[in-house]
Amino acid sequence: MKKSIVCAVFAALLAAGAADIDISSYGAGPMLKPAGTFYVSTSGNDANDGKSPEKAWRTIKRGVRDLRAGDTLLIKGGVYDEGGISLNYVGNKPNYTVQCGKPGSPIRVMGIPGEKVVIRGGTFFPARGQGRVAKYSCKVPPMYGIVWEVPSQILLQKVDFPQIVEEYPGTYFYDAAKKEIMVHFVEKAPEGIRTAVERVGMRLRGSWLHLENVCFTNHPSGLSVRINAPVNRNEVRNVTVKNCGFFNSAQNGTDIEGGHHGLFIGNFGRNNGDRGTILVQPPAFDNLFMGNWCGPGPVTERHLKPYAYNYAFNFYSFKPGPRNHVIGNVMDDFFAFRWKSASPDSIFRNNMVNGKFGVESPHVKVLVENNLIAGNLSWPGVSMNASDKDFEGFPMVFRNNVRKAAEFKNGDPMLAAAKKLAQPGRKYDMPEVTFADLKADHIGTTSAVITCRTPECDGVITVFYRPKGTQK
């Protein structure tokens, strides 16, 4: 990142009333002392030296292998079917810093500006015109039982018997004896399935690392920013994740665990699993999340456990680190933002929370101001709908937040940029919803029993009724 860009972003923050945060202390910072520049391309070869576009490497995994402080890896647009890409990832080696950058000389991994770089996981099995119930030879069970339908990217539900697959779309059964997957597709014209094979798309386990313009799809977890073991002898600090995309992750888009002074800016994602697009875990502290768009979760929820809430932006910890600031982001889901416990001394400002704001936290000192919180904000010991009033007599400062979009007059330039990152959902070619054997077995004053079947469909049925003798 050039110094002029940093200054421009800082000026934007000042204009937005965030002068109490010094952006220059977050992220990998500018490249002042560059070293080598290397290249990766889908037309490259890992036997090359990677020192020019003509001699580019073929895989990103090879591209990052020998990077050192001051090096830049430029990735040409395309789809890279790989995972387990790692920078500075060696566990149980104290103070491991071989692939760490330095102040003024970060290690940068960047998609070429204006080109789309996608790191895609999983193994693809084509449909071969087998119809909506199909079988595939699969010698290795899907990792974590994760199977996506292609192209819908619907996460199929694992069931215990093939007879259930025959009946219910959106399901699959793995026959360990036959080493075979049986699936029942949701869409009318499926292309096939994709099974998970790598747990993480990319791991950033060092410091002064800069990742930009890279998208992740079809991994359990797209990106992991996490401390190497042993955690008390290593650290992850000053990592920048900028303009990256996270899609169709079965668990979470990106996981920030234990890092500090990181900058997560201009990222976007949707259709990620029950841990959300952005997951923050302890002992992460002193991080800045700014101008990100976190869209809706998966299109189906039948595979989720009843207690699994798919919060788009998820701070999951009973003992969070302090000062994790969330400024100018858009959280566009029914379950939008979660503080498993609120991060002390944090600022939550100028965000659009287009859904529920869940807090499971003691009362700690935080500042929540100038946000749109469209859904309920529940805070134990305060209110089950704390969005309706300012807090008084608590260490939390809650002010100038609104419930209605029409009342939200916020000129934060980072928020405006985050709105532009919104990714539209795709249209699905699914069978029409039809009902068979619809009948009312019982209708009472306060209850009813209504039964029906929905062949080749699965979903939620909503019943509207009028109590007898009323117009309600």
Structural commentary:
With 472 residues, the protein is mainly beta. It has three domains: 3-119 and 198-347, Pectate Lyase C-like; 123-195, no CATH class; 432-472, no CATH class. It is built from four helices and 38 strands. Strands 1-2-5-15-18-21-24-27-30-33-36 form an eleven-stranded parallel sheet. The chain has a nine-stranded parallel sheet with strand order 3-6-16-19-22-25-28-31-34. The longest helix is centred in the first third of the chain and has 13 residues, at 3-15. The N and C termini lie far apart (60 Å). The model is unreliable at 1-7 and 9-17 (pLDDT under 50).
Gyration radius, rounded: 24 Å
**Topology, number of strands:** 38
- Helix count from the secondary structure assignment: 4
Q: Specify the biggest β-sheet.
A: 11 strands, parallel
Helix content: under 10%
Question: What structural category do the secondary elements indicate?
Answer: mainly beta
Approximately what portion of the residues adopt beta-strand conformation?
25-35%
Main-sheet strand order equals 1-2-5-15-18-21-24-27-30-33-36
What assembly state would you assign to the polypeptide chains in this entry? single chain
The CATH class of the largest domain is identified as Mainly Beta
- Count of distinct structural domains: 3
Low-confidence stretches: 1-7, 9-17
Shape annotation: globular
Average predicted local confidence, pLDDT: 89
